[in-house]
From TrEMBL:
Taxonomic lineage of the native organism: Bacteria, Bacillati, Actinomycetota, Actinomycetes, Propionibacteriales
Subcellular location: Cytoplasm
UniProt name for this protein: Ribosomal RNA small subunit methyltransferase H
InterPro entries reported for this sequence: RsmH, SAM-dep_MeTrfase_MraW_recog, SAM-dependent_MTases_sf
Role, per record: Specifically methylates the N4 position of cytidine in position 1402 (C1402) of 16S rRNA.
GO CC, any one term: cytoplasm
Compositional bias annotation for Low complexity: 298-308
Record-listed E.C. numbers: 2.1.1.199
Pfam hit, one: Methyltransf_5
Family: Belongs to the methyltransferase superfamily. RsmH family.
One record GO biological process: rRNA base methylation
The keyword Secreted appears for this protein: no
UniProt keyword list: Cytoplasm, Methyltransferase, rRNA processing, S-adenosyl-L-methionine, Transferase
GO MF annotation: an example: rRNA (cytosine-N4-)-methyltransferase activity
Amino acid sequence: MNAAERHVPVMLERVVALLAPALAHPGAVLVDATLGLGGHSEAFLRQFPEARLIGLDRDPEALRLAGERLTPYQERITLVHAVYDELPRVLDDLDVPEIDGILFDLGVSSMQLDEAERGFAYAQDAPLDMRMDSTGPTTAADIVNTYSAADLARILYQYGEEKFARRIADRIVREREIEPFTTSARLSELVRNAIPQAARRTGGHPAKRTFQALRIEVNGELDVLRRALPAAIEALALHGRIVVMSYHSLEDRITKQTLAAGTKTDVPDDLPVIPAGHEPYLRLLTRGAERPTEEETAANPRAASARVRAAERVRTKGLVA
C-alpha cells in the first residue's frame, strides 16, 4: 500500500483555504512541520504550482514514503529529518530568511498507528517503543520500567488526564519488579485491570489515556510544541499564516495561548496610545477551535478529535500592515 492509500489528510479543504492567501504569489515558501505521509503537502503543491515546500519530520520512514509520494514535485521540495522545534536551524541551513505559511498537524501519524511494531497502538501486541523517531534514545519501555511511581502517576494524569493514574502507576511498579515490561499487550491488560469495572464501560479502550501519556513523554511533544510555535511565528513573513491542527486538549491549550498572546499589545492597558512597534503582531483567522464536519468524521474516524486554529502575521519589524 502506498502513502496516498494509507493516509487520509484531516480537514484538508479547510487547511488549504486557511493557508491559500499566503501562498498565491510566485516563490511562496510553505513549511509542513509534520510532513507525515505528505497528504496535506501534496494538495498544496498541486494547487500552488509556483510554491516551494520544506517538509520536516522526525520519522525517517515517513520522510521516505512522503518523498516517494511527492516525486512529481521534487524540483520544488526539500525534505529534512528534524523535529519541528528545530525550524530556525533548518531555515538557516537552507538560507531561507522567512516563510509564507506553516502547518502543524500534531500527534501520532496514521503510519505510526498502523504499523504494530512501532508500539503506539494499545489494541495490538508489539514492543513498547512509541518513538516517532526510531533513532531516539528513550522508549516507552524505558519509562515504564525506570520511572518512579510518582513520576509515572504525574505523566499519566497530566498528559493522559487519567483519573486512576496513581493506581495504574503503583501497579506498574509492583509488576515490573516481577518482570520488566517489554510489550504493549501486557501493559494494556494491566491498565484495564487497574481501572474499576464501572469506569471501563465508557470512554473507549481503558488503556487509551495511558498510551497517549507515554507517547507524549517519549517524544517530548508538549515541550517541543512550546518551543516550536513562537519560532514558527517569528519566521513568518508579513501576511504569512500559521495553521495548527491538534488532537489533544493540552496541545490545543498551548496553541490557543501562544496565538492569543500575539493578538495583544505588550504595553500597559492604561496607556492612551500604543507606541509604534508594540501593536499586536497576529490576527486570528479562526473563531475558537474549528472542528471537522460530521461527514468527515464519519468517513475518517481519526479526524474526530481534531481542532484547528490559525493566525496571520500582521506586524513585523515594527510595521503594521
